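To the wet lab folks,

You asked to see what we're planning to order before we commit. Fair enough. Below is the target structure as tokens, and below that is the sequence we designed to fit it. If anything looks off to you, flag it before the synthesis order goes out.
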């Protein structure tokens, strides 16, 4: 194929899928591709050219058909009817708990937070309950960590433990929601919650300030030693921050329209959940580890029409850290991300680093990413200590104004690097019609020679303002098809 010409169909297939797509040599293929490859092998080259090449996007309608937001009975339980008062110092925790209990006892409905500012401790949702914040309503969460006792089963950075309650929590519930045009204010700041991280950007190290570092290390050691979760008891004195919203082992979850600010740590963190919709949410919080939405070991997840302006990753898909991810063996899978806006953050759409249980069937489309404080559009964080298989990741029709590092980053030398016994697998990644106006690199891909990144396809993309080209190490089967980088057309295949 001559430079500057569109590839023929045969050349397109060779460039974009090659032996991997047909199931030769690499030993894997998309399930539908494998079936087509078998037929093509029988029928010969001409049948191969005539048979449509299935792509992962064909899975999306099936996934969306399974994602159905929960519906709730038309019953309302106003928290002011249970004693909540719009007053700076009045604690509405008890009133909200009573309203939730009454709603659940009646068979479900809406627990309504009317306009006003209400102070509360942790909120634990029950099945068939929708916590609904009307426009002008704010739930401000108390800053005293003791309010988040007793301990609950939760996760910290991909590891199970007993710790402080998340600010909004549910365990083993069905049909739950947090909705409405109101605001959730975690009230974390440089004096509350955030200092537990230790020195971080706007949070300087303070002499004598206890941090999470010893407890985080102790928890990691317990995980590697297979200490039962029931014995991993932390809480007071450990300084491990909680997530803001965490449904745990729940089904049929809806988070819609709310604004989230000032979070202690991760914002929306469904763990081991099924059928999750996150829609129309605004996340605006710049504290340490303030990831926007982190589905972990969850399946059938839709994230749409959200705005993320965060202190860490905008969206990060996770499945457990190291031995914990391998023990639970629950990938994050069947995730659709669409029509979102990503502003500040470490990455727009990220997989990892706690992805030892694997990630697959990830789809992102029609998103807008633009900020000098946004580092990457698509990022994969892993290494041979984490391990795990990440596969079938697709991004299309995404507009990137500028990112500080690269449009796509996949770095197997993240943190510990190649220091473990579990080489990660990253394969079948496709970008289609992704445009970027400014970045240091187009692609920054660093795999291992002994475990390369495989089958990456960049199709119909346009990366302008790329200062240093690409950085490619340990990659097998990287294809550029009808893609321009700084105005130069690329149709080529790179194999190391």
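Sequence we intend to order:
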């Amino acid at each position: 194929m001559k430079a500057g010409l569109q590839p023929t169909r045969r050349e397109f297939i060779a460039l974009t899928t090659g032996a991997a797509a047909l199931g030769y040599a690499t030993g894997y293929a998309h399930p539908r591709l494998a079936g087509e490859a078998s037929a093509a092998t029988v029928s010969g080259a001409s049948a191969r050219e005539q048979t449509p090449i299935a792509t992962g996007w064909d899975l999306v309608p099936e996934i969306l058909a399974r994602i159905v937001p929960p519906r709730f009975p038309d019953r309302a339980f106003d928290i002011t009817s249970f004693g909540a008062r719009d007053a700076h110092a009045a604690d509405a925790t008890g009133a909200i708990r009573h309203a939730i209990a009454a709603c659940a006892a009646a068979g479900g409905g809406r627990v309504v937070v009317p306009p006003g500012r209400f102070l509360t401790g942790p909120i634990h949702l029950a099945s068939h309950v929708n916590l609904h914040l009307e426009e002008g309503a704010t739930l401000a969460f108390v800053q005293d960590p003791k309010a988040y006792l007793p301990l609950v089963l939760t996760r910290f950075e991909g590891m199970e433990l007993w710790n402080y309650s998340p600010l909004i929590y549910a365990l083993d519930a069905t049909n739950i929601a947090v909705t409405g045009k109101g605001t959730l204010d975690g009230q974390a700041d440089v004096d509350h919650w955030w200092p537990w991280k230790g020195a971080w950007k706007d949070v300087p190290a303070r002499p004598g300030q206890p941090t999470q570092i010893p407890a985080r290390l102790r928890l990691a050691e317990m995980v590697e030693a297979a200490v039962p979760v029931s014995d991993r008891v932390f809480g007071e004195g450990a300084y491990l921050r909680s997530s803001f919203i965490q449904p745990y082992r729940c089904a049929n979850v809806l988070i819609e329209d709310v604004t989230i600010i000032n979070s202690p740590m991760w914002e929306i963190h469904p763990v081991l959940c099924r059928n999750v919709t996150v829609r129309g949410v605004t996340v605006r919080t710049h504290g340490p580890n303030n990831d926007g939405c982190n589905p972990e070991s969850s399946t059938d997840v839709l994230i749409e029409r959200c705005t993320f302006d965060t202190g860490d990753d905008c969206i990060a898909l996770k499945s457990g850290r190291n031995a914990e991810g391998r023990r639970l063996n629950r990938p994050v899978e069947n995730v659709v991300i669409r029509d979102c806006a990503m502003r500040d953050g470490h990455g727009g759409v990220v997989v990892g680093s706690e992805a030892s249980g694997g990630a697959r069937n990830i789809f992102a489309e029609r998103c807008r990413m633009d900020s000098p404080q946004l580092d990457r559009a698509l990022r994969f964080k892993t290494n041979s200590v984490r391990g795990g298989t990440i596969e079938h990741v697709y991004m299309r029709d995404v507009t990137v104004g500028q990112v500080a590092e690269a449009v796509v980053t996949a770095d197997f030398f993240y943190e510990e690097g190649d220091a473990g016994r579990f080489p990660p697998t990253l394969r079948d990644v496709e970008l289609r019609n992704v445009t970027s106006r400014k970045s240091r690199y187009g692609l920054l891909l660093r795999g291992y020679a002994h475990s390369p990144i495989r089958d990456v396809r960049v199709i119909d993309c346009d990366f302008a303002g790329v200062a240093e080209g690409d950085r490619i190490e340990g990659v097998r089967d990287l294809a550029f098809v009808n893609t321009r980088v700084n105005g130069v057309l690329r149709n080529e295949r790179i194999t190391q």
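Structural context that might help your review: The chain has eight helices and 34 strands. The two ends are 20 Å apart (CA to CA).

Thanks,
Computational group
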